[in-house]
Design goal:
mainly alpha, two-stranded antiparallel sheet, 7 helices, disordered N terminus, disordered C terminus
Length: 238
Amino acid sequence: MTTIPHTNWDPVAAHTAGALYLAIAVCGGFSIGFVPMQIVATDAATSAANLMANQGLFKIGIIADGLVILFELAITAILYQMFRNVGPKMAMVALISRAGMISVMGINILLWVLPYMLLTGENSWDVAQQQDLVQIFFDAHATGVFVWQLFFGMHLLALGWLALKSDVVPQILGRGLFIGAFGYLLQGIIELTFTDVAALDYTYIALLVIVTISEISFGLWLLIRGGRTSPQFSTAPA
């Protein structure tokens, strides 16, 4: 009697994917979550003043954004290679969806940089006009986050499906990724259509909690155990 693992991953690739997941969580949490909270205000004048007063933080945030995109490119390729034998078509859906997300992220960096260029460069606009444009770019950047969330939600649906079909990933993680993906999709649709329904807000918040826990757990699982499989027994002759 021989033992044959149904899903055979490259341990180095799995551990690398886990490390990238955690690196993206740290860099993305800083550049997408923390930095905008310190700079973007509800009025244009304050946003412009905050930007000029926090130029160092702003530039570090841009570096973190750039690292996120580089890490995303790497993890997209690695996840495709890991899961393509589980479901080739769904693995391709996951790859294309995450690649679309990365493209929107690149555009979003441009929108984030434009206010700084506007305030520090030479132009013919007066102060009030500059401040208004700064706020418009910041608002567009915030909206861009909801756009790439749609792509990422689709990616997580495909990835969750692949995790559930594999014989390696714990089922609870696959379910968390698949179910939680609807949080990104629902929030993106709600924000982009300017829908204001409290029940929907509570729903996507709950789903985002599920998917956040699942993503971090999946990253940790890949980093710690992702390359080791539990062999399945086969009655085929040795």
